[in-house]
Write a structure and sequence with these properties.
The protein is mainly alpha-helical. Helices cover 76% and strands 2% of the residues. It contains 21 helices and four strands. Helix 5 packs across helix 16.
């Protein structure tokens, strides 16, 4: 009797597993169908928009995207206009993060600390672009692209300073104490103060629309897709299990974003330092293990930057690839980071602007350069710099595993952490743009959060050529609306900076002993 019951139990268990497998298969097929429908729609109706945003002009043998020039020119203008603030005030920025100018007894508007705001914004920029994007840049532009990547990252620090200062100055504090801020608010309110009410509202609405679309695509679906692709690469997880990866990621994302900015900041302040330490640590090990080749690698970087021997498009090819990777990675001028920084606890807008200028340095100058050094040391992108058939994440992964096979698995962990952190940050960006257009409220927010998590599942199931092209275009279209406003409003930022520095020099703003905290 016992044996019969055992057999029946086993049969029912097997039947349940098969039934679950069939249901999962049907669900996966449904998601796959939705994915293809969405991708087909974007392929049929948005190609003109992608072509417009990424319009290129021929420069020598290469093509230069106008949007990259738009971002680079702004970064150069802001660097000069603010008196090279990213170099002169970096020490002050570090002291602000440490709390030197924060009164421990003061109650200030905001939801998060300077450090939490920085890590939240960093989690949105430090991501797969630092791994796959640098691999693509060096596969095409050679080691010389690294030099121009660093230059662009240093200039972009001034763009971040400008937009994040304005983000705090024009933020809205809700009755609940929650904060809404970012380009939507400083474009509409700031330009309104200058008499350009219609222009300000138009720019704010255009930015918000592009931010929502960008958050669902590049900040969501692409991240989930690449996370599953890395699981497939490192651990042989079947491609058709993407729906399972998507459900797990969506559940984790929802568990964080349902708590709002404090919950997101609490997670990012823990995960960002660890994921950065993991990736930088791996890079340092590779560099130390090949210390005799570091000099040669730097030589290749500088030589490639100014001679471009063997590089596609010569020196122009190296320059373009470096600029593209830096601007696409750190998002300086795009305006997204200003949304996260707006939630900081401070009475001085310029303090968060100073903190934010560290982002492009960490993202591009440190992390992207580490990736570039690892690839250059491995020598897999030697002349004619085609990567021997490798590009993007495969070139980066192969370069790490050339030193130690275990890096294949550690890199997979880093990719998943990068993808997860990027998704939770971009969910916040998209949410704030959503509520700007459709109004604040728990129901309104829940609709967006559920929609965002649904697209995490969709993103993990299939490759999205057209959708990702469109979402990338949407993210960089944000910079068009944002930078137009920044040009009008940068005198306000300059005035805020001068006032803050003068009050520090006069002793009106006191410094506090951070060691005694």
């Amino acid at each position: 009797m016992i044996k019969i019951r055992a057999l029946i139990s086993l049969f029912l268990a097997g039947f349940s597993v098969n039934l679950l497998a069939e249901e999962m298969s049907e669900f996966s097929q449904s998601i796959d169908g939705i994915s293809k429908t969405v991708d087909g729609f974007f392929n049929d109706y948005t190609g003109w928009f992608v072509g417009l945003i990424f319009k290129s002009v021929p420069v020598g043998e290469a093509s230069f995207p106008i949007i990259v020039g738009w971002l680079l020119l702004a970064a150069l203008i802001f660097t000069i206009y603010f008196g090279f603030v990213q170099f002169k005030r970096v020490g002050l920025a570090i002291n602000i993060i440490k709390g030197k100018y924060t009164d421990p007894n003061s109650k200030e508007d905001g939801e998060v600390s300077h450090f939490q705001a920085l890590t939240t914004a960093l989690s949105g920029t430090v991501g797969l672009g630092n791994i796959a994007g640098v691999g693509a840049a060096l596969a095409i532009g050679g080691p010389g692209a690294t030099f121009w990547m660093i230059v662009c990252g240093l200039l972009g620090m001034a763009s971040k300073f400008c937009e994040c200062t304005l983000g705090v100055k024009y933020r809205t504090v809700l009755p609940s104490g929650a904060i809404s801020g970012g380009p939507m608010y400083y474009l509409s309110q700031g330009l309104g103060e200058k008499g350009f009410v219609g222009l300000g509202k138009a720019l704010a609405i255009g930015f918000a629309l592009m931010c929502i679309l960008g958050s669902l695509g590049g900040g969501n679906m692409f991240q989930a897709n690449q996370a599953h692709a890395m699981l497939n690469y490192a651990f042989d997880v079947p491609s058709e299990y993407g729906v399972i990866t998507g459900i797990v990621l969506a559940s984790l994302v929802f568990s964080v974003i349902v708590g709002g900015m404090p919950s997101i900041a609490s997670v990012t302040e823990r995960i960002v330092p660890w994921m950065a330490a993991l990736y930088v640590g791996m890079s340092v090990i590779v560099i130390v293990a090949n210390i005799d080749q570091v000099g040669t690698a730097f030589g290749a970087i500088f030589e490639g930057a100014f001679t471009g021997s063997g590089v596609a498009g010569g020196i122009i090819g190296a320059l373009i690839q470096g600029l593209k990777r830096a601007t696409f990675s750190n998002e300086a001028g795009v305006g997204s980071a200003a949304i996260a920084h707006s939630a900081v606890k401070t009475k001085e807008p310029v303090t968060e602007g100073l903190v934010s200028l560290l982002e492009p340095f960490i993202d591009t100058v440190v992390i992207c350069t580490m990736t570039a050094l690892v690839i250059t040391i491995a020598g897999l992108n030697t002349a004619p710099f085609d990567g021997g058939g490798l590009t993007g994440v495969t070139l980066t992964a192969a370069s790490f595993t050339a030193t130690a096979g275990i890096f294949k698995y550690l890199l997979a962990l880093a990719v998943i952490m990068f993808a997860f952190s990027t998704m939770i940050s971009w969910s916040y960006y998209g949410l704030k743009a959503w509520t700007y257009l459709f109004g604040e409220g728990k129901k309104t927010e829940l609709v967006f959060k559920l929609m965002f998590c649904f697209f995490v599942i969709v993103g993990a199931t299939i490759q999205f050529g057209a959708v990702i092209d469109f979402s990338d275009a949407a993210i960089f279209a944000m910079s068009i609306f944002n930078i137009i406003g920044l040009y009008f409003l940068m005198p306000i930022v300059k005035k805020e900076l001068k006032s803050f520095i003068d009050r520090i020099d006069s002793g009106e703003i006191k410094s506090y002993d951070t060691k005694s905290k």
